[in-house]
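Example S7 (structure tokens).
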């Protein structure tokens, strides 16, 4: 009978978003009688506290390096399409260049004999150089590796020749890839990954969530307002600008509509400036980081206007509160939002379509409530945290036994 399985969980990025919340929710719930977990992460105290708020896990800090601002940064958002393509190509070259540095940094952390499985957390693909380096290092040390890719891989950049060489190395080294959507599974297959399994995202719903009235008071939202909510990092892929434009359209016929855009990130000030320029200062509330469940409970409908996604936590959080969701039809969104049943899907970057669907929900309470009930039922059947944790425990156990 084997003892506890020793798992190294590699957290390569200093950014805090859905992928890092996933670590906190899943890794912290692995059965301690069966798994001994060690976090391998950059020396960033805020990140460490976020993914392990109780300080219950062992930690190894590693000076991982990543390329500078990319196309998904505030800097990239100001670039033209041609500049953005060059920026992505430059990141491809830099990511490959950092592979050797990061492999050297990880060599002692992922010491042969110290771990039974290496679990690499990668927000997207190619994603973080440190994530790819961890897979290659684990392979060199004959340790099975699992890489979780949270978003749908990007298309190849103009540096595709370099990307394909890296893909071949990583695909040949990783034992298994897990991803939350079939869309991501297909895209990874197109990049040469053959062992890819789908594990739908599960979420942790707090036992106590503030009631809608108290949250509206705290946010300064009138009790009589019709509220739409989006909880997401303010970064280019989330495309808050499309929702702000949609709110301008909705307000022409419904002046009591208020949009709560919770979260933080490099484009928050730009979104505020956009709202002010459109005369929406009283219609757009930007509370910063907030309790997503409380915000969605206080709303009448939820929105996610992203241009690029995998299977976002925020949509499932809204569904857990019985809210219909208007979401862009990108990535794995259609696997969680069933158009016309649990919400509506709209083309990405289409404010008019978003506005039309929001009007549908805000002016037809019976339909909105029916969709909200269907959304909650979908959360219960497919997206509970217990289901996802059990699936990862099974995968980690299987990989460790085949070491």
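Recovered sequence:
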């Amino acid at each position: 009978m084997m003892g506890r399985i020793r798992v190294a969980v590699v957290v390569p990025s200093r950014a805090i978003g859905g992928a890092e919340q996933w670590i906190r929710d899943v890794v912290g719930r692995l059965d301690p009688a069966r798994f001994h977990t060690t976090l391998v992460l950059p020396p960033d105290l805020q990140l460490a506290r976020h993914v392990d708020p109780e300080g219950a896990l062992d930690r190894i800090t590693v000076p991982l390096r990543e390329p500078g601002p990319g196309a998904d940064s505030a800097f990239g958002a100001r670039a033209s399409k041609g500049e953005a393509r060059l920026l992505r190509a430059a990141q491809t070259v830099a990511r490959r260049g950092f592979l050797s540095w990061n492999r050297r940094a990880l060599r002692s952390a992922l010491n042969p004999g110290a771990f039974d499985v290496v679990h690499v957390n990668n927000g997207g693909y190619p994603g973080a150089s440190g994530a790819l380096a961890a897979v290659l290092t684990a392979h060199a040390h004959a340790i099975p590796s699992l890489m979780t890719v949270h978003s749908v891989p990007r298309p190849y950049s103009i540096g595709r020749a370099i990307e394909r060489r890296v893909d071949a190395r990583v695909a040949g080294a990783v034992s298994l890839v897990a991803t939350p959507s079939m869309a991501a599974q297909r895209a990874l297959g197109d990049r040469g990954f053959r062992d890819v399994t789908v594990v739908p995202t599960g979420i942790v719903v707090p036992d106590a969530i503030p009631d809608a009235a108290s949250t509206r008071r705290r946010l300064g939202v009138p009790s009589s307002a019709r509220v739409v909510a989006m909880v997401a990092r303010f970064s280019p892929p989330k495309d808050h600008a499309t929702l702000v434009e949609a709110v301008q359209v909705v307000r022409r016929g419904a002046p009591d509509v208020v949009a709560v855009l919770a979260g933080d990130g490099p484009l928050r000030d730009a979104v505020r400036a956009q709202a002010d320029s459109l005369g929406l200062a009283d219609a757009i509330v930007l509370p910063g980081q907030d309790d997503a469940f409380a915000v969605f409970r206080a709303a009448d409908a939820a929105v996610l206007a992203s241009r690029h996604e995998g299977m976002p936590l925020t949509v499932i959080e809204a569904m857990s509160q019985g809210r219909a969701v208007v979401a862009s039809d990108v990535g794995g969104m259609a696997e969680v939002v069933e158009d016309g049943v649990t919400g509506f899907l709209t083309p990405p970057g289409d404010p008019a379509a978003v506005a039309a669907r929001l009007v549908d929900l805000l002016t037809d309470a019976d339909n909105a409530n029916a969709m909200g009930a269907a959304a909650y039922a979908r959360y219960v059947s497919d997206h509970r945290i217990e289901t996802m944790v059990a699936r990862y425990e099974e995968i980690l156990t299987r990989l460790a036994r085949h070491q």
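Notes on this example. The chain has two domains: 5-202+384-401, 212-382.
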